[in-house]
Each structure stands twice: as structure tokens, then as C-alpha cells.
Amino acid sequence: MQLPESFLAYAARGPEFAAWLDRLPALLRGLVEEWELSVDGEATHGFCAVVVPVRTTSGRPAALKVGWPHWEAEHEHLALQHWHGRGAVQLLRADPHRFALLLERLHREDLGELWDVEACEIVGGLYAGLHVPAPPQLVTLSSCVRRWSDELAGLPRDAPLPRRLVEQAVSLGRRFAADEDTDGRLVHTDLHYANVLAGDREPWLAIDPKPLSGDPHYEVAPLLWNRWDELAAPPGQGIRRGVRARFHAVVDAAGLDEDRARDWVILRMLVNALWRLQDPPGTRRQTPDDEYLTRCVAIVKSVQD
């Protein structure tokens, strides 16, 4: 089975990923045979998974997704089972041990070509169907926030981030970690423009969850940091105005509490900056460190100035 060269190039990430890529063609062939599928097109991919168009024995078009084994994808099948296709792609079959999913086939069209504010309104409209009570197996957002807060608090004072923002994020994180409303709802956590595809059952459906038991207000931030070039490029428009337009569009469409959503944006952006600072020496990124950290700070300032 032919894998895209662009996906095979991810072998440069390290020996573990390279070894998994070596095993992947045989894994895909085994799943196609075991689940009685027929390949129906060329494979596509994201950062951590390959997707092969297939048909079932009944002729139904479907998509076989096999992902790199990592903790964020461990409970993807549980989230999709829990949603039962409401607001999200429908799960047809799963093998969690092999990180393999058989999904309804959606169109390749995502929200990337729509006006960003309109796209934010669409995503906000999906929240109601997605933010149902979480299954008990999921990792809790509060446990993550507790760890992130401690790591932020441990940043040296000369870290290349405004100290007042770091301290603000630590304070917010510790408050959220103790807040009973931080856990309990099924949250996607990575719901941005490319993770919503056009469908036949519904106009738009979410894909690729990295689910947690959490707070719906946690969802907003990815809509602010994705499609960044569109915010930074138009002269005279201003990043602040663009970020705030997106923020208010999704908050209003979803009926979220503005202050709580803003606090989660602040915390998430500082955590993103923390993770960049924790990169091992020599890690290659598409966005240089200085530019990325500036972007995180710009979003934080935009939502609260």
C-alpha cells in the first residue's frame, strides 16, 4: 500500500516514529483484509495519522484511519462512540490497540476557505452537540492544568515571556484546577478549521478529537492561533481586531461565558509557550521560537486589552 511521501518524510522525527512508519503498510494491509475492505483512492494524512479511502462489503464509502500511538489519540474512539455522529464524524468500527478507526467518509472541504469569523460561528454551533457528559475513562482537564500550572510557576524569571502574564496564567491554572466545573464535559480540545469537514448527513462535522473530560470554555483558543497568517497579513487591520472578532464570534455562537472563555485562552496560550520553551535543543519547527512566543503573547493581550 502506497503511503504519501510527505508522510514518510516524518521518519525524521525520530527512530520510534520511523519504526512505526516501517510497520504501517503491513498494518494497513492487515486491517483492510480483516475488516473486508477495498481501497478506494489515495491515502491522505495529517501530522500523526494516515487516512485511506475504502469501501465496505456493502459498498459503503468509508475512511480507514490509523494513527501514531500517543496518549492524545488513546481515547479518540471513546469520544466518537459517545457522540454517535452528532456533530462529529460517525465511527463504524475501532481497534484501539492498533489505533485504528473505520469512519464514515466525509468530503475533503474544511473551514479553511470560509471567512474566519463565519467559520468560528460554525464551530461554535457544533459545541452544543459535542459537549455532552464525558465518559469516565477520559483524562481530566483539572489534572492536566495542575501539572501545567506547576511547570509555569517553575519557569525562570528570565524566560522570554512577560512575567506578569506567566503569573496570571499560574493563578488562573490553580483556580481552574480547584474548580469542579473544570471537569465533566466531553471536550474535543483541538477543534479548529481543518478539523471540521463537510459531510452528507450534516453540512459540517468535527474530526480528530483529542478528548478530555473538561470545560467547554477550553475549546476556543485553537480558533485564535490557527490561520494566523490571515490575521498578521492585512495592513491596517490589526491582529488585535482579528483575534477579538474570532473570539466574540465563537463565544456568542456557543453561548459561552465571555470571562471564563477569556481566562482559558490566556492559560492555553501561556501553556503553548511553555511547551515551546520545553522543546529539546535542536528541535525544528515551522515557526521560529521568537515568532511563536510573540504570537502567544499577542493573543493573550488581544483578548484582554
Brief write-up:
The protein is of the alpha+beta class. It starts with a helix and ends with a helix. It contains 11 helices and 10 strands.
Structural class: alpha+beta
Q: What's the average pLDDT?
A: 95
Model regions low in confidence, pLDDT < 50 over at least 5 residues: none
Oligomer: single chain
Give the DSSP E fraction (strand runs of 2 or more residues): 5-15%
**Highest-level CATH class of the largest domain:** Alpha Beta
Order of helices and strands: HHEEEEHEEHHHEEEEHHHHH
N- and C-termini, Cα separation? 52 Å
Radius of gyration: 20 Å
What is the total number of structural domains?
2
Report on the structure:
It is built from eleven helices and ten strands. It has 305 residues and is α+β, with helices and mostly antiparallel strands. It has two domains: 5-104, Phosphorylase Kinase, domain 1 (2-Layer Sandwich), CATH 3.30.200.20; 111-304, Aminoglycoside phosphotransferase (APH), C-terminal lobe (Aminoglycoside 3'-phosphotransferase, Chain: A, domain 2, Alpha-Beta Complex). The strands form three sheets. Strands 1, 2, 3, 4, 5 and 6 form a six-stranded antiparallel β-sheet that branches. A two-stranded antiparallel ribbon has the order 7-10. α4 runs parallel beside α9 and α9 packs across α11 (289-304). The chain starts with a helix and ends with a helix. The model has no long low-confidence stretch (mean pLDDT 95).
